[in-house]
User: What shape does this take?
Amino acid sequence: MKVLVTVKEVAEVEEDFELDGLRVADQYLDYDLNEWDEYAVEEAVQIAEESDDDVEVVAVTIGPERSEETIRMALAKGVDRAVRVWDDALDGVDLLDVGAKTRLLSAVVEDEDPDLVLTGVQANDDSFGATGVSLASAIDFEWAAVVNALDLDADGGVANVRRELEGGVEELTEVDLPAVLTIQTGINEPRYASLRGIRQAQSKEIKPLALSDLGLDAAAVESDLVLTDVYEPETESAATYFEGDAGEQAAELATVLREKGVGAQ
Amino acid sequence: MDYSLSDEQRAIREEVRRFAENEVAPVAGEYDEAEKYPAEVVRKASEMGLTGAHFPVEYGGVGYSSLENALVTEELFAVDPGIGLCITSAGFGAEAIISFGTDDQKERFLPPITEGESVMGAAISEPQAGSDVTSVRTRAEKDGDEWVINGTKMWITNGSVGDYFVVMCQTDPDADDRYAGFSQIIVEADRDGFSADKITGKMGIRASDTAELVFDDVRVPEENLVGTEGMGFLQLMQFFDETRTAVAAQAVGIAKGACERALDYAKEREQFGRSIGDFQAIQHKLAEMHTATEAARQLTYKSAWSVDNDEDQLTALASMAKEFASNVATDVADEAVQIHGGAGFVNDHDVERLYRDAKITQIYEGTTEIQKNIIARELLGKGF
Ligand SMILES: Cc1cc2nc3c(=O)[nH]c(=O)nc-3n(C[C@H](O)[C@H](O)[C@H](O)COP(=O)(O)OP(=O)(O)OC[C@H]3O[C@@H](n4cnc5c(N)ncnc54)[C@H](O)[C@@H]3O)c2cc1C
Assistant: This one.
């Protein structure tokens, strides 16, 4: 069995920062693995560890060479090997939209032929939250989004999943393999890379693939979305501080709540 | 000459720091205040491979060199020296077993450390034998196929939580040479006649366990002797350079932690309508602290590198690194408290703890004065 995990290196912005054109200036950015992908990686590695059969876990990312450091941490946690898609044509792209990501990842899926694809629910930089499902549709896999519990029956070809819906509602459902599951945070407890794992990861493969290696050309990364502006939203201070002892503070709070309509019939 | 860390070394630093920020930082104050050994944190650290990381791979370690050990130590101590010491000291004393032990000893005593099941210690110091290690009086006498041990060890890290100790014993009081006549013997804590009394009221590294060990007719089988009878002190000395380098790395970590917190606070705290980091007096402090820390780090890394690559220059370098870095740690922690003003004088800021913790690096593994003696001895070619 083969599990493909899509992973992404995302930039985290420091508290105080400056903009540089259409992006946050580089010195204010820290790069790390997308939080949701941490959970997807852990889930995949646990599937491999718990299975009696041979399970290969492959990570795929779309990212420049710099992202290898981050991807290698996933290898240190037990992913067997990685594929990194990058191309000169991607260098100038400010915003890779869901369609473009889907085209690239579909080509990788075709290459790798996995039984299960795990993605994060979303990436915490551009937060589209759509790539997993869009990919499933493009490659014609079954799918389930926002999965927060997974019990895989590989022999039966079924993933028993629990999905988080809006308003605290959850759904239990079965998804036939091959499938794409978008993984929610909290599904497991991501491990730290062990020191041994870090050592082993240094000799694991991160295969670079250009568009042409995937049978694609520059048209594949053309985006319908164009980034036109980046700005810091005005922050309004909406905090009200109540003074006085507990009784006075409670009275003030009650007044405010009543004004807001709490308790109105 | 190459000053850059490898990809692997950078990854170690990053992941160990992440572990320390998530698992150590939130509980550091609590364990310090309670003087409690953080068994749970040490167990988690062992899952990641942080206990006994320098043990050979076949015994569960990663086979780390001194430089990698220094990186791990630095990151842990930058977050919290007390818990950092608990983690890095879990395998104290194991060097002797790794280098001189039998296969059977290695099988029995090394894997439990890396698996997080056991903790060990090195018992050398005694009430009357501190800087003068050769005045050790704990006596081991052969009786049939057993060693019978009597004596008291003082200041033993992991003393009341450890499962076994490599104990420096006098086995031949009549030896001519003052360095001969000692042997290293492994004593398990569950042997009859062994007792440990935890020492409380420490100024710093209070999460780390320190105890007085009493051996009252403790009997261990003769196969618990490590290496060669009568060679204990010479065996121990082989590792002084490594253990001193490790303490230098602890000190660099403490200095680094103090620097980071001082810089953050200087940016955040406002007085006279601006952040205190705008005042040149504070800027100069920060500049000096970071410069001194970097100098200590480079000396420590060079010493660590020398452990693996250049034995000839090592002894003086290890003492220089230990002596210099421990002074930097105490000075930098002092300045970090100063930059925090009153806030740094109470324990809701980490610098208060770092200030107390820094001091030990000038005392254990040979005091500052002893390090200077060694450096001078090496310079003047007085030999050992
Ligand atoms: C928290 C803690 C943990 C420890 N852990 C361990 C452990 O795990 N195992 C272990 O065996 N020991 C351990 N020790 C003991 C430690 O190594 C000794 O405390 C240290 O070596 C100093 O010995 P001492 O305390 O007897 O001081 P002393 O040797 O009595 O020194 C007192 C003062 O005299 C100075 N002095 C002594 N001799 C000379 C000289 N020749 N020239 C100039 N100045 C000199 C010293 O520098 C110092 O300033 C620990 C100690 C502490 C506090």
Remarks:
- Chain B touches chain A at residues 7-8, 10-12, 14-15, 18-19, 47-50, 53, 57, 62, 64, 72 (CB under 8 Å).
